[in-house]
Specification:
This protein folds into 2 domains: about 10-75, Winged helix-like DNA-binding domain superfamily/Winged helix DNA-binding domain (Arc Repressor Mutant, subunit A, Orthogonal Bundle), CATH 1.10.10.10; about 80-220, Four Helix Bundle (Hemerythrin (Met), subunit A). It has 10 helices and 4 strands, in the order H-E-H-H-E-E-H-H-H-H-H-H-H-E. It has helices at about 10-25, 35-45, 45-60, 80-100, 105-120, 125-145, 150-160, 160-170, 175-190, 195-225; strands spanning about 30-35, 65, 70-75, 230. The strands form 2 sheets. Strands 1-4 form a two-stranded parallel ribbon. Strands 2-3 form a two-stranded antiparallel sheet. The chain is globular, with a radius of gyration of 19 Å. GO terms for molecular function: DNA binding; DNA-binding transcription factor activity.
Length: about 240
């Protein structure tokens, strides 16, 4: 059993973060049934804390309350992917523009360092590490933009498309092309060219969206063929 630490953040926050990380990492896959008693035992918290955590994740649209089933990990429809990538493109391009306009030399150096780490890891294509390093890149980009609200909104979008991020990076040649796309973003920021930075960010998201939509279509088709689409994390005892 993985009991939560009883200091630092409140237990509800820790429970939310733990379940969210399981969803984002894919340990809790789309449409998996989330058994409250199992979570209660796993986290070493009360049923009330678990229910509060699930309600929070439902508000983030990472969890869905399924009639006659209970809470399950949300699955993205094709339309969901379209809408999420539209928002992602808007947020990332705004961050790129702002970073090019007002990023300091220290902030830009952090973006460069994050890109260098991605470039090194892309040669090995270790997907979990690559996603972590790309998150570091976005952290540096948001910091340089000077707008933390963009970061908060983008984090939610990234969490919701997490089930597709690993799949898109597994696409042949995607890691290499991603490095080239991000290099164009960083070059524009270094040169203080907000128009080009914005355009490069949009181009990067557009490529990812094209792959994600292809995958989402395949996932929708596969799900429609399932006899029992609900995968349980275990039975309540």
């Amino acid at each position: 059993m993985m009991a939560l630490i009883r200091q630092a953040a409140p237990l509800r926050v820790q429970a939310v973060n733990h379940i969210r990380s399981k969803i984002v990492s894919g340990d809790f896959p789309p449409r998996m049934r989330l058994i409250e008693k199992r979570l209660e035992e796993e986290l070493g918290v009360s049923r009330t804390v678990v229910r509060e955590a699930l309600r929070q994740l439902e508000s983030e649209r990472l969890v869905t309350m399924e009639a006659n089933v209970g809470p399950i990990v949300s699955a993205l429809s094709y339309d969901d992917v379209v809408h999420l990538y539209q928002v992602r493109a808007t947020l990332e391009s705004a961050a790129g523009r702002l970073a090019a306009e007002s990023g300091t030399s220290v902030q830009i150096e952090r973006i460069q360092a994050a890109l260098a780490a991605i470039r090194t890891e892309a040669e090995r294509v270790e997907i979990p590490m690559l996603i972590e390093l790309k998150n570091d890149f976005y952290t540096a980009l948001i910091d340089a933009s000077g707008n933390p609200i963009i970061g908060e909104m983008l984090s939610n979008v990234q969490a919701r498309i997490s089930q597709l991020r690993a799949l898109t990076l597994h696409s042949e040649g995607r890691a290499r092309h991603m490095v080239a796309e991000l290099t164009r973003v960083v070059d524009a920021i270094e040169q203080g060219d907000p128009d080009r930075a914005e355009e490069a960010c949009r181009a990067h998201v557009a490529v990812a969206e094209k792959i994600a939509l292809r995958l989402a279509g395949a996932l929708d088709e596969a799900e429609s063929d399932l006899q029992n689409p609900i995968e349980s994390m275990g039975t309540a005892s």
